[in-house]
């Protein structure tokens, strides 16, 4: 067998390392790759479910519950004043809050209106509840708050009055009222 000299390997010029891509270029590539993958998944879904017969569904036949969640009252406090304040908080949360009146034309109540209806005629519990609310308000907002109705009417929405009723219920429970 004749011996052939090895031919030198062809030399190729060295290529420069690839330039680093900018964030926008990388995001464009990822977007394109994801679009392709989602398209493939969509086709696979269509193929895999083509044999399933479907009938249009009337949602009125399916949805039989209220669309908004119902708010259940929390477990009551064991003390009467705390229980009244907790129920008053729940009443405002579910029935609505108002300012300028004990009860507005829609049935929403102010803080004192909610306490009054939840005290169920027990004026002693009502007065004690209002006193605890005023104390809770003054603890957070200072002694310049003159009354519960004044505090209630100083807000455009019920967020702060609701929070104060909740804190007052906890305070009354702590005091054993």
Descriptive notes:
- Helix content is 55%, strand content 0%.
- It is mostly helical and 177 residues long.
- The chain has a domain at 80-175.
- The chain starts with 22 loop residues before the first helix and ends with a helix.
- The mean pLDDT is 85.
Secondary structure layout plus pairing:
Blueprint: H1 23-49, H2 59-62, H3 80-95, H4 111-119, H5 123-141, H6 148-153, H7 159-175
Helix pairs in contact: 3-4, 3-5, 3-7, 4-5, 5-7
Count of individual helical segments: 7
Strand percent estimate: under 5%
Question: What shape does the CA trace take?
Answer: elongated
Structural class: mainly alpha
> Number of DSSP strands?
0
Note the run of SSEs as H and E: HHHHHHH
Sheet bearing the most strands, described? none
End-to-end distance: 113 Å
**Over the alpha carbons, how many angstroms does the gyration radius reach?**
35 Å
Helix share bin: 55-70%
Mean of the pLDDT scores?
85
Low-confidence segments, ≥5 residues, pLDDT <50?
Answer: none
């Amino acid at each position: 067998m004749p011996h052939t000299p090895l031919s030198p390997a062809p030399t190729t010029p060295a290529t420069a390392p690839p330039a680093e891509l900018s964030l926008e270029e990388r995001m464009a590539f990822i977007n394109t790759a994801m679009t392709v993958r989602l398209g493939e998944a969509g086709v696979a879904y269509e193929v895999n479910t083509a044999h399933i017969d479907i009938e249009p569904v009337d949602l009125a036949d399916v949805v039989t519950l209220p669309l908004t969640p119902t708010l259940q009252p929390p477990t009551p406090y064991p003390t009467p004043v705390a229980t009244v304040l907790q129920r008053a908080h729940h009443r405002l949360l579910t029935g609505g809050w108002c300012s300028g009146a004990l009860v507005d034309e829609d049935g929403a109540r102010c803080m004192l209106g909610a306490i009054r209806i939840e005290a169920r005629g027990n004026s002693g519990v009502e007065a004690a509840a209002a006193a605890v609310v005023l104390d809770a308000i003054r603890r957070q907002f200072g002694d310049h708050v003159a009354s519960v109705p004044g505090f209630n009417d100083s807000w455009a929405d019920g967020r702060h009055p609701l929070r104060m009723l909740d804190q007052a219920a906890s305070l009354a429970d702590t005091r054993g009222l």
